[in-house]
């Protein structure tokens, strides 16, 4: 395994680490043209939360897949931009520059975009914008804050914690619970059960449109998608309730696989869950590459 | 049009032994003429390292702007450096600081070097100065005073972070971990043995301690520890302890950074 410090972008202001199997030790060239890009999980620099990105990049090198972990402008080791580009556009431009650099100097032909939280949202954005992206791995994708997401958080709490907690039952019978919230969750559950698209009506149309566009694009372009959700993450419930058919069809077609990381928090801190995450990614890539 | 600010240019590189390569980011002095002095920044470890990373970046940029040559680097098994975290040890990390100091001297072509460390990085830097008298200035930013308390604190935070963590998969005897990082028995023993008051730095060296807690036992203890040092000063600055806060809340303790930069400016003018 060999790691290279890269400095690229218009003024060499973007910094990243390229990890590859040591060319001297490498026995195969099977995946040489395939490069994985790891996008910042929010403001956490390119080592990733709990250094997961480093571990993942080194494992992928063993599969002969090169990986670039880099920082978007103004994050980690990368300098800020001066063109006042909105954050999403800046992120996309930085990612495209990374892909161009890898294509020009490292023989990259196809890309796998990987990200956790905001990094997953960036992966989705880049996946739509560039045809060179063939696979996406989204871990606990960041969700828009809306009354629906809050309701799903409540629902998740009631179903996973409160239901099995004697204190919560005591609060319920001693009239100290938030009954309005409980009623809203029950109402939502009934609505979704009998009319799966009912949550869409209330969801911001722009968010819904962009999510539907993303899943539609994946399907039409034949791109493969792995979605990993931590146990306490509401992502899958949210996507099923909000996007509905487009999400389920992609999953049933085999183009998309989803998996729950048991015992994991949003940033996947427990070591056992980190291991689970890395194995889920490598297993899926082994099946699909 | 220039879309990136080239004044913030840094040079990322790997250095050291091939099997134990360390990652560094060299911030070349932006001011002309540059000062004839380099500053080596020593990171904390584990989750504290991740949470203070951008603060160190900003500190390095500001120091380079006033003419210092600055190197940030990752210890073996940490950040972008080679190795796994569970291969790290206090002895290894102390030797990494010495290796990084040599790399900074070579890159900057300066022989005068200061060490500036945060949390465990501060304590490790102090350990280095005990073994060598080549360093000009030592800055200890919230150093770990007592290793046993430090380990207790980390394990306590891990426990309160999630009582369910790890149990489901590892069974009843999970390996010890601290907020996303493994804590091996060897590292635990190493860390627990640390006592800053036992470390004796060279008397000619300038020493600055920074404390972000305005009250309590820690601040008093820190002041007491430096009393014996002839050229020592303590600054208590009411500022965010970014290494303890969730990363999306606060990243840059700007008051402390400005104060550190001003102090270095005065000390090396």
Describe this structure as you would to a colleague.
- With about 290 residues, chain A is an alpha/beta fold.
- Chain A folds into two domains: about 1-145 and about 205-289, Rossmann fold; about 145-195.
- Chain A is built from ten helices and eight strands.
- Chain A has an eight-stranded mixed sheet, sandwiched between helices.
- The radius of gyration of chain A is 20 Å and the shape is elongated.
- Chain B is α/β, with parallel strands linked by helices and about 270 residues long.
- In chain B, about 40% of the residues lie in helices and about 20% in strands.
- Chain B has eight helices and ten strands.
The proportion of residues forming helix of chain A, as a percent range, comes to 40-55%
Number of strands of chain A: 8
Question: Which residue ranges of chain B are poorly predicted, with pLDDT under 50 across at least 5 consecutive positions?
Answer: 1-5, 166-171
Looking at the chains present, what oligomeric state does this protein adopt? heterodimer
The number of helical segments of chain A is 10
CATH architecture term of the largest domain in chain A: 3-Layer(aba) Sandwich
The name of the CATH topology of the largest domain in chain A is Rossmann fold
Major β-sheet profile of chain B = 8 strands, mixed
Strand content of chain B: 15-25%
Estimated radius of gyration of chain B: 18 Å
Query: Strand portion of chain A, in percent?
Result: 15-25%
Morphology call of chain A: elongated
How many domains of chain A?
A: 2
CATH topology of the largest domain in chain B: Rossmann fold
Strand order of the largest sheet of chain B: 1-2-4-3-5-6-9-10
Q: Would you list the SSEs of chain A in sequence order as H and E? A: EEEHEHEHEHHHHEHHEH
What distance separates the N and C termini of chain B? 36 Å
Helix content bin of chain B: 25-40%
Q: Biggest interface between protein chains, with counts per chain?
A: A-B, 46 and 46 residues
* Count of domains of chain B: 2
């Amino acid at each position: 395994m060999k790691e290279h410090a890269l400095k690229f972008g218009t003024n060499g202001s973007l910094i990243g680490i390229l990890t590859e199997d040591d060319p001297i030790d490498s026995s195969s060239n099977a995946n040489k043209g395939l490069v994985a890009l790891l996008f910042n999980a929010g403001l956490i620099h390119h080592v990733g939360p709990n250094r997961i990105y480093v571990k993942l990049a080194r494992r992928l090198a063993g599969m002969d897949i090169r990986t670039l972990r880099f920082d978007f402008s103004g994050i980690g080791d990368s300098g800020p931009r001066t063109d006042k580009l909105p954050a999403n556009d800046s992120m996309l431009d930085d990612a495209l520059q990374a892909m161009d650099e890898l294509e020009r100097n490292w023989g990259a032909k196809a890309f796998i975009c990987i990200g956790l939280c905001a990094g997953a949202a960036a992966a989705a954005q880049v996946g739509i914008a560039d045809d060179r992206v063939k696979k996406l791995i989204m871990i606990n994708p960041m969700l828009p804050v809306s009354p629906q997401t809050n309701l799903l958080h409540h629902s998740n709490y009631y179903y996973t914690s409160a239901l099995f907690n004697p204190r919560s039952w005591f609060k319920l019978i001693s009239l100290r619970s938030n009954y309005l919230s409980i009623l809203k969750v029950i109402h939502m559950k009934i609505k979704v059960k009998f009319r799966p698209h009912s949550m869409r009506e209330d969801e911001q149309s722009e968010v819904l449109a962009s999510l539907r566009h993303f899943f539609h694009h994946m399907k039409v372009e034949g791109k493969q998608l792995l979605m990993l959700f931590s146990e306490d993450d509401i992502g899958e419930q949210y996507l099923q309730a909000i996007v509905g058919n487009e999400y389920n069809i992609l999953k049933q077609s085999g183009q998309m696989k989803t998996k729950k990381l048991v015992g994991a928090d949003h940033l996947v801190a427990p070591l056992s869950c980190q291991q689970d995450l890395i194995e889920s990614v490598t297993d899926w890539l082994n099946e699909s590459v | 049009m220039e879309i990136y600010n080239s004044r913030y240019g840094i040079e990322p590189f790997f250095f050291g032994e091939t099997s134990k390569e360390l990652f560094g980011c060299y911030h070349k002095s932006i001011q002309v003429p540059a000062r004839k002095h380099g500053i080596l920044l020593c990171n904390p470890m584990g989750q504290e390292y991740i949470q203070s990373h951008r603060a160190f970046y900003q500190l390095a940029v500001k120091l380079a702007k006033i003419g210092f040559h600055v190197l940030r680097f990752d210890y073996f098994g940490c950040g972008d450096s080679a190795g796994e975290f569970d291969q790290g040890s206090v002895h290894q990390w102390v030797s990494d600081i010495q290796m990084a100091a040599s790399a900074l001297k070579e890159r900057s072509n300066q022989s005068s070097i200061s060490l500036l460390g945060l949390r465990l990085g501060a304590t490790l830097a102090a350990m280095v100065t005990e073994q060598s008298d080549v360093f000009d200035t030592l800055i200890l930013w919230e150093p770990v005073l007592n290793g046993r308390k430090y380990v207790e604190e980390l394990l306590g935070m891990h426990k309160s972070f999630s009582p369910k963590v790890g149990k489901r998969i590892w069974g009843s005897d999970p390996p010890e971990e601290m907020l996303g990082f493994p804590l091996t028995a060897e590292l635990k023993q190493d860390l627990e043995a640390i006592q800053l008051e036992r470390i004796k730095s060279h008397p000619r060296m300038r020493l600055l301690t920074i404390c972000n807690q305005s009250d309590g036992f820690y601040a008093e203890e820190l002041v007491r520890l430096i009393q014996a040092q002839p050229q020592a000063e303590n600054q208590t600055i009411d500022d965010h302890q970014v290494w303890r806060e969730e990363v999306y809340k606060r990243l840059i303790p700007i008051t402390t950074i400005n104060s550190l930069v001003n102090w270095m400016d005065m000390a090396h003018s």
